[in-house]
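I am still getting used to backbone structure tokens and would like to learn alongside you. To get us started, please write out a protein record for me. Start from the sequence, derive the backbone structure tokens from it, and show both lines together. Once you have written the record down, we can walk along the chain together:
***
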Amino acid sequence: MRRKEKRLMQFAGLLIAALLFLPNVGLWSLYRDRVFENSPEIVEGPGGIPQIQGLNVRPRKDDGVRKKDWHDYEAIKRDAARSGNGEQGKPFPLTDADRVDQAYRENGFNIYVSDRISLNRSVADIRHPNCKQKLYSERLPNTSIIIPFHNEGWSSLLRTVHSVLNRSPPELIAEIILVDDFSDKEHLKASLEEYMVRMPKVRILRTKKREGLIRTRLLGAAAATGEVITFLDSHCEANVNWLPPLLDRIAQNRKSIVCPMIDVIDHDNFGYETQAGDAMRGAFDWEMYYKRIPIPPELQKEGPQ
């Protein structure tokens, strides 16, 4: 009897998920199936090669969609030349004084070490070689990036914002919305407001009471003006060219829900490392647990796709 009840509960869960997400995925993607307004002007470059904003583009072989190299090679070059504590995503050299219990009690990671690393540090490009050659649609939707937080550390929160702004094409960022879930730390009040004045794309929303992660995300989503909604944690770092691959999938199908490979930042020394294992797909099992599964060999192709 219990097994039958469990199966019924699983079926009900799958049915609810289907009803919520399959019709239009309006909460997760505001992208509309239309020709984007204010799209970049296409001009003819040397040799008759079409160019957009100085970057060469070429048509996609399968469906005629024009593609573009979204990499910012100047920014990549500047990052590669940086050195210092934590630069290139290297672990911070810890001393005994750095390993104190108090550093982990509030944030779950060593905030003392975080505070001694640059707010806009460089990270190594650890993508698969094929990813570095891929082109994506020249017409991508922009996105509102929602970052909820509660009593987040100053350096970890600002490093998240800096990394997104530094490693995203500006035209793809409609806004960054920081949603403060009733924090009581002084550094997250007037000081944060004053710091964000220099970043016109960043705005701060504040709840009037503790709402929890999901409701805080929903508040940010309700205030979003971008064509796509992207949720990030308040202590993460974006890597090179992270955004175009995600938006490209949504441009192909507005009902898509996409998730990147999630690399790892060590909670102790802030070393930046790739996630264990090769490229994976995300999937839910019959009990609605999220899992990473290998991509079948027959679907893995050599070279950029």
The first strand starts at residue 43 and ends at 44. Helices lie at 2-21, 73-80, 102-105, 111-114, 154-166, 190-196, 213-223, 243-252. DSSP finds eight helices and 13 strands in the chain. Residues 2-21 form the longest helix (20 residues).
